[in-house]
Specification:
- By secondary structure, this protein is mainly beta.
- The protein is built from one helix and nine strands.
- Strands 1-2-3-4-5-7-8-9 form an eight-stranded antiparallel beta barrel.
- Strand 4 (about 90-105) and strand 5 (about 110-130) form a beta hairpin.
- The protein is elongated.
- The model has no long low-confidence stretch (mean pLDDT about 90).
């Protein structure tokens, strides 16, 4: 709960700063929702993991700084993790994060956007399971935060709907063990901006 409240506070702070910037520079801000699918994996020095699928969903704020440049902070729930094999048995690591990417976007007249920026993730829950019936909570085995980079492309249509494809590259070790583990997540989804102009 503390991590969730902290994430909401950070997103509210960034959105508030955007609103003040909008007043100062007379550019518009749009707020929206997004939802999509994840193809997640864990990169480790202890062996290969197989990808798993999850979902992402959250809020976004979009500020036009100039005609071709924008800033877009987001608050996104993200299901991540990976699959590993021990003695012929597959085990799935399910990691639930609340991510806050701060994206810098280069915008084109066609609605195409190229985006990149830093991201911090707050761990909500970590579980390991051989099947959905025997999941074990392993929160203490993973660090509470994850720092990474997000980059990708998106396409906004005149209706306010858009498509987004992104890769989240983890930069910090997320494991509390001797193993070095980093997140890698491909995200694809749709979004809607309520105040699109």
């Amino acid at each position: 709960m503390k991590k969730t409240l902290l994430s909401i506070f950070v997103f509210a702070f960034v959105s508030g700063a955007i609103a003040q910037t909008e007043d100062a520079f007379h550019h518009h801000t749009a707020f929206g929702l997004k939802v999509g699918a994840n193809g997640a994996n864990i990169m480790s020095n202890q062996g290969d993991f197989d990808p798993i699928f999850g979902i992402n969903a959250g809020l976004m704020a979009h500020l036009h700084l100039t005609k071709h440049f924008a800033l877009q902070p987001e608050l996104v729930y993200s299901g991540q993790g990976g699959m590993y094999n021990i003695l012929g048995k597959d085990y799935k690591i399910n990691l639930q994060y609340l991510n806050i990417p701060i994206l810098f976007q280069l915008m084109f007249g066609s609605g195409l956007r190229i985006e990149a920026g830093p991201q911090i993730g707050f761990m909500l829950k970590a579980k390991v399971a051989q099947s959905s019936d025997d999941a074990i909570t392993v929160d203490d085995s993973f660090k509470s935060t994850d720092v990474g980079l997000a980059f990708g492309i998106s396409k906004l249509y005149s209706s306010g709907f858009g498509l987004d494809v992104r890769y989240n590259l983890g930069l910090t070790d997320i494991s509390n063990s001797s193993a070095d583990m980093k997140n890698g997540v491909v995200q694809a989804g749709i979004f809607y901006l309520f105040a699109n102009q």
